[in-house]
Amino acid sequence: MKCLADSLKVAARATTLAGVLAAGSLTAAHAAVIEIDGSSTVYPVTEAVAEEFQSAGGEHVTVGISGTGGGFKRFCRGETDISDASRPILKDEMTLCAQNGVKYMELPVAFDALTVVVSKQNTWVDALSVEELKKMWEPAAQGKVTNWKQIRDGFPDIPLKLAGAGADSGTFDYFTEAVVGKAKSSRGDYQASEDDNVTVQFVSRDKGALGYFGLAYYEENQDKLKAVPIKANASAPAVVPSRDTVNDGSYQPLSRPIFIYVKETAASRPEVAKFVEFYLEHGATLSREVGYVDLPAKAYELALKNFRDRKLGTGFGGVAEVGVHVEDLLTREAKQ
Questions:
Q1: Measured between alpha carbons, how far is 152 from 131 in angstroms, rounded to an integer?
Q2: Which residues, listed in sequence order, are joined to residue 226 by a DSSP beta bridge?
């Protein structure tokens, strides 16, 4: 699998080239046919699908990474065809879409194991509990919890430096809900970025650093990062993020479904419909290839049926939810 950083550069060059071609020729009708933006977590899957789709003769696809929240802002203003999302759509985003007459289909494409990472130089962390993560990340920790020795007796006297998702990220919403207990509730004195590669570089270069992002970014950078096993509570077993622990429900509370949202009016265009069906038909294989957990076959079949039936809306209640299992997801999407 090619480096995600290189993939981002390739995507940026492709987007720029498409713009040049469109500006240079009014007849270049397919220069940027399908526009997608949103989650940096979902980006590797969508980008892989877009590359395969175009290699198979499909129309041009551009994929941005403005974060789940940023992507929904554009999507609900009618600016994009598809929105990548690492969490379900929220109530305020649903309201914005309704105000602008944007109707949508919610299609789950994979599961992610949100992964806590430290540098390879870190020799003292063998696992962390959710309570210990909260001690690091809650708003009350800002400017006060700044050293590893404050997290647990026996940890060394080494400065604690944190990195993670920016405020427009669905990963930020989910992590804060799962760890702190309230979405968007976090200390502000950390290295924040919508680009997970920034977090990779920050953590890998400092033995006292800790960060979090989607499993695919860890899989791509195992040579310089360590995944931290997570304990749901102090007495629970420490569980490593993986395909198996997501599927059996033991990696909690940091496993979550990821989605694409398709605008109803865009779905009426043949090239968009063809792309979405291609996505759902090949999503399992490509999700595995980029490091995520593919859904059961029946989930993709159900998503494809929902798309073809133009089943609108969301199976969620417009709030951040923690601890959704594969079976829960299937039940929600079937009842949607």
A1: 11
A2: 118
What distance, in Å, lies between the first and last C-alpha atoms of the chain?
35
Q: Which pLDDT does position 51 carry in this prediction? A: 97
Q: Do residues 49 and 100 both lie within one domain?
A: yes
The pTM for the full model equals: 0.81
d(CA 61, CA 35): 6
Same domain, 208 and 323: no
The sign one gets for the Cα dihedral 303, 307, 308, 310 is: positive
259 alpha carbon, distance to own chain's centre: 8
- Classify burial at 144, counting beta carbons within 10 Å of its beta carbon; exposed 0-12, middle 13-18, buried 19 or more: exposed
Of the residues 210, 230, 247, the one at which a domain ends: 247
- Please name the amino acid found at residue 284: A
**Tally of domains in the chain:** 2
CATH code (residue 21): 3.40.190.10
The string of pLDDT tens digits covering residues 235-270 is 999 999 998 898 888 999 999 899 999 999 999 999
Residue where one domain finishes, among candidates 212, 247, 282: 247
Closest CA to 284 of 79, 111, 150: 111
Domain boundaries, position 240? 115-247
Q: Can you spell out the DSSP letters for 222-242?
A: TTTEEEPPEESSTTSPPB--S
**pLDDT value of position 187:** 97
Burial of 298 (0-12, 13-18, 19+ CB in 10 A): exposed
